[in-house]
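Weekend entry, working from home. Most of the wet-lab plans are on hold until the incubator is repaired, so I used the time to fold the two sequences that have been sitting in the queue since the last round of cloning. Logging both here for the record. First:
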Amino acid sequence: MEFQEFSQLLEPRLGYRIYNTNAAGEIILNEQGKIITHTNGPLHIIAGPGSGKTETLVLRTLYLLFVRNVDPKSIIVTTFTEKAAKNIKERIITGAEYFFEHHPKLQESIDIYNLRICTLHSLCNDVMQEYHSPDYQNFRLMDDFEQFLFTFEHSNLVQEDDHYLPVYEQFDYLFEKYDPVSGYRGWNNHQYPPNKWALTRAAINLFNRITEYRINLNLMRESGDSWRLLVEGFEQYQEQLTHFQRCDFSTLQSKFLEFLNTPHGRLFVDGDPENYEMYPRLEYLMVDEYQDTNPIQELIYFSLSRNAPHNICIVGDDDQALYRFRGGTVECIVNFSQRCQQQWSVECTSRYLNTNYRSHEKIVEYCNEYLLSFPQMNMPGARIQNKPRLVFGSQVHGNYPSVTCIRTNTKSDTARQFASMVKWLHDNNKIQDYSQCVLLMKSVRETSRHALQFVNELKNQGITPYNPRSRQFLVQEEIAVALGAFISIIDPDLEGIRYMRGGTAVKNNIGRNVQQWIQEYQRIAPNSAELSMYVNEATRRIRQKQPQEKLKLSMAELFYLIISRQPFSNWKEDPERTYRLGKLSSLFEQFSAIPYFDQNRRSNRGEIWASSRGGYASHKWLMDFYKLFVTRLMAYGENDPEDDEIIAPPNHLPIMTVHQAKGLEFDFVFIWGLSQQEDDEDESIHIECDYAPFCQNQIQNNIACHDKSAQDKIRFYFVAYSRARCALIHLLTQQELRISRTGDNQTGFGIIGRDPNRFRQIVHFI
């Protein structure tokens, strides 16, 4: 297919052309057209909010397939989340089907389903499985929940706390935040190590960053006792992963990087000229959301693109980097051109998508001015050099206060004003559906400190909130009943809680939750004869067990038999209940799979043994069940189901974190709690700065920790503000507004930056 036909076929679908012709009939490409048709060499696309980056990525892929005739197996597209990958894949398939309608014969030569469109983690896992990597075969890939359990159980950094005390002192900032297990903030008494839950969280943080930042272990080992002990703890953890054939997400990337330098890895990248149909060469790599890439991912992408002419295309926006807490370093996108020069001695082509097709002109102006009002964003290396401002290009017009600040005296007043305004918008036909609005917050837990008052005021107005990340998973009826029934079988007298170590506060907290679950089960038991008969029979069988006799059923099997009975079989007709029960089943399976040693027996957590006197489950197993599984669920919570196909159900008002809202847009964006004073620096930045002397092959920007912290907060708010189409409404109390205007470098990141005068012509105050 010729390019002009390709473009002409697209025009009625897009509503615009990606090229024009001059008087001489020559094709003049616009910026989007130049990106789509770029074929050789590294390409750096800097795409601002609302600029159509996903559409451009889709069109570029279709161009390679239908105009350049690139084999679909030779193209890889990666993005940050499974949801985003699914969206891109569906749009590419829809576009391809449109071309097939006009050129049916192309369907014989282009198998669109041979494209790899996935997250990087999925790519690493799938390719190593397909190519039978001996270092990964039969390994179990653990998610965050399972990694926490495994680290708690098998990391010496957690178990041998006295030995590793210098490490905890070195990284004491990892223990400063509120600990939901102990109920305290910080590490109060340095004569004793922090509790093991806090140690596990810290160990995972430290271990993941060692892998993701490509740390030189020998250099770190030689830098003092605390560093030597950290390396010792990391190497012991890696040995345990190998011994038990487990792999976390960070280690997965390390294994994949090593795989790429094996014969099978070279076959995947270089292809086989003699068997090209089976093993084509990798020709094009496209990476979405590159601003959240970390150093090991950067090295993987460069390894995948190592063959000239190095056709790697990265898409992202440094001003929307949000995931440093997961290892992302904005320097990867800021320094991409330099890295191409350093790695391959080639020039990188940079293209800018800076026309915002989403927001009202005043919102675009506000976002531009907001970013530039901070000196930290003008530091060398903070942003991509010579980056242009956002340009207004949307169809949203109107002479009304599109950037507004509603000031009240208290949070309760704010919540009432918010709910009343949403109701007014709906009743006056400014919106047709409540899902056209969103409330963005830092935390959406339904507690008095966070979202609860807003939820209640919405309900008072007859508006149904949609808040799947409210962390209310454990109080849902079907979850409480299932846990209550399970505990009624394995620990009918709650001996496991009585014998559990971990402090009175922890035991009392667990006890209260367990009692509530058992009460929920007992409430429904009289009307659920099938379930209550099974619980009674299973309890009786355990009572008959001989000392140290193994129970016939595993933990997971016992749970499955519970939820196979009424009322669960009826509840499964409800999609949300089904999702929650499925999620709880998965958590049971993950806990069951954790290997451990019980009375010198190698076992796994799913195997339950009778106690030394018989008639009861092992006290050690019960204590570990409460200590590991129940406490982990209570402390960190689980989210309710989220439908990847919808942002919110019809006529529900979504309440979201800024991270949830990334990539989305809403007509009316309400923002609460983003302008509060924050004088703490993110622990991820501290780790990054502490690890910097040991990083391999990474261009570092010489920016101090406190300035990096400020930049991250500014980006966080920028992402929130740029979600709005018609109106951006700040919700503040008078006290918070005073804080935002202090001008201190550590405050004022939320509403109008450090210079209120700069925004008087933009922000309308109510």
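Second, folded right after the first finished:
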Amino acid sequence: MTRTKLNLSLLMLFTVSVVFAQKKAAETITENDLQAHLDYVASDFMQGRDFYTDVPGLELTASYLKSQCQKMGLKPGFNGYFQPIEMTSSKPDPENTYFQLISKDGKVTSTDANIFALGGSSGNDTIAGDLVFTGYGWYNNDTKYNDTEGLELKGKIVVVMTRNPTMVESGGHNNMQIEMQKMQKAMLGGAKALLFVPDPMNPEPEYINSIKKYATGGTLQLKGAKPGRTMPVKLLFGTEELANQIVQESGKTLAEIQNEISETGTPKSFDVKELTANVVLGKDTSTVIGKNVVAMIEGSDPVLRNECVVYTAHYDHLGIDGEQEVYNGADDNGTGTVALLEIAEAFQSLKKKPKRSIVFAWVTGEEKGLLGSDYYSQYPVFPMENTLADINMDMVGRSAEKEPDAEAEVEKSLAGPDGIYIVSGKQSSELMEISADICEEMGLIPSDKLSQAFLTRSDYYHFYKNGVPVLGLSTGLHDDYHKVSDEVDKIDFHKMKRVAQYSFLVGEKIANQKKRILVDNPSVE
């Protein structure tokens, strides 16, 4: 046998052995193990894995993750596997929260205590200013219907009804995405605050109360966070009765104004001239210590081990609502949490570890504003410039019966049995090619449909903004998102296993290449 043929044979043998090792490691990720972990993490006993529950389910989950890392023999990323995070907790103080209407002569005409807010600073807030009623606060590109045409929003408290004319006409239900578009419009217009009131024809009169359950759980901010990290426009939520007092100078009730909009198809917005507002939002503040759980496998190459691939998943959720119902968050993000455990086990099963180091970070406070990943990005195990990629898993366990239509709404685009959404800033075409190749090998159908709308909405964002290429993995949104109905019995464990195996194979490929993946579009927003 010639030397060339011998070298070729050895190369083929090496390639086959590597592929065999990868496949064997991927097969350690099993449906039974995923379910066993998830049955514990998403159980009622964990009380929704939040900071404010009687049973400290979030702490118990962190301890469980630590114990699993120890059992696998993973190296701690930080002392004791925990990365402590000091945060400021802020909860509404209803006794010191109210919305006052003030007449032109400076007299308080009414005080309404039945309001609440989202966003704002961690301390007490006071908002004072003129009012403008903007109907639904909506603009339709096709019909050119525009509720804010000719109105100045800057420095004012903008009053809007929920839903929009099309939804009212069709009997459509509330959609938070629609309301967030109104917030963005108000923010761009320079508004001080946005006051949402339920439109009188609303088929879901309890909609605002359902938001209130979430809002009264409180907010968290990293200790010493810059003002720019808070929501720039304060979102206030009030009642139809409060709205009737605000619009009374029109001589009509809110219901009568809404009827006129429906009948004429034209806006009925106006500046409120007879009244101004003074809003006080009381807060109870305290210090909370959260923790990221971080483990790692050190790379086998003496030089390349100083670079890493990071896997992330948030393990927190929404806790318990005002009626003591538990948000178990099986898919959000119990699935990502336990998938990451199985991926770590797959890497640890490799006899020859990857050339580069692998970091596994279970981050906290995602539901409070991506806090844990924000903190990690500031104080990482390896510098951001030595982090080749972040592979983030957030809601990776659900499937629709078939793949969604191309025209399906982003908010309801649950993937089918073979679908996977990959959110990316597309900073590395090489990374996307690796991802596409592995999807093809596994029979997965990748889609980037969620990238534009979701690039800032999960933990990969803090890697993206630091120039690190990201793959944000999800199987899509569903009707149980942020509801108490997000339960284990709805999880597709076969699909979840495939997503976890795909994630392992992508990270293993990146970590073993001789050269780091090429970043051909490093610029971020």
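Plan for Monday: verify the second prediction. The chain has 14 helices and 16 strands.
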